[in-house]
Recover the amino acids of this structure.
C-alpha cells in the first residue's frame, strides 16, 4: 500500500469519519452549485484548497475522491486532507450522469482522531 493510500485509509476513510464526510456532502448540496467541466473543477478546487491551507498556515496532505450517498443520489466528492486533521469538501460529481459541480463555499470538518490498534 502506498503512503498516500495508507494516509487516506487511516484518516478520511475510517468508520469514524464516514458520517462527518456525509454531513459535509449534505452541507455542500444545500448551497448553490455551479456546473463545471471536470478538469476545470479539479484545477479550480485544488487552488481553493491550496489557498485555504496557506491562509491557515497548514499543508495539504492529499486530495482524495470519496464516494458518498445522499438521500437523492450517489456522488463522488474530491476532499482535501489538511495537516491539522481537517477535511475540505471540494468539487462534487453526480455519479449517475458524470456532471461536476463546485459549491458556493467549501464545507470544512474536523476529522475524528486517528486510533491506532
Amino acid at each position: 500500500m502506498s503512503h498516500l493510500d495508507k494516509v487516506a485509509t487511516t484518516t478520511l476513510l475510517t468508520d469514524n469519519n464516514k458520517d462527518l464526510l456525509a454531513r459535509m456532502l449534505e452541507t455542500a448540496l444545500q448551497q448553490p452549485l455551479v456546473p463545471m467541466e471536470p478538469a476545470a473543477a479539479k484545477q479550480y478546487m485544488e487552488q481553493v484548497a491550496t489557498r485555504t491551507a496557506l491562509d491557515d498556515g497548514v499543508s495539504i496532505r492529499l486530495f482524495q475522491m470519496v464516494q458518498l450517498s445522499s438521500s437523492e443520489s450517489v456522488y463522488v466528492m474530491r476532499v482535501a486532507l489538511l495537516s491539522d486533521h481537517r477535511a475540505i469538501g471540494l468539487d462534487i460529481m453526480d455519479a449517475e450522469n458524470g456532471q461536476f459541480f463546485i459549491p458556493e463555499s467549501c464545507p470544512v470538518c474536523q476529522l475524528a482522531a486517528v486510533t491506532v490498534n
Notes: The first strand starts at residue 33 and ends at 36. The beta strands are 33-36, 60-69, 74-82, 86-94, 100-103, 108-110.
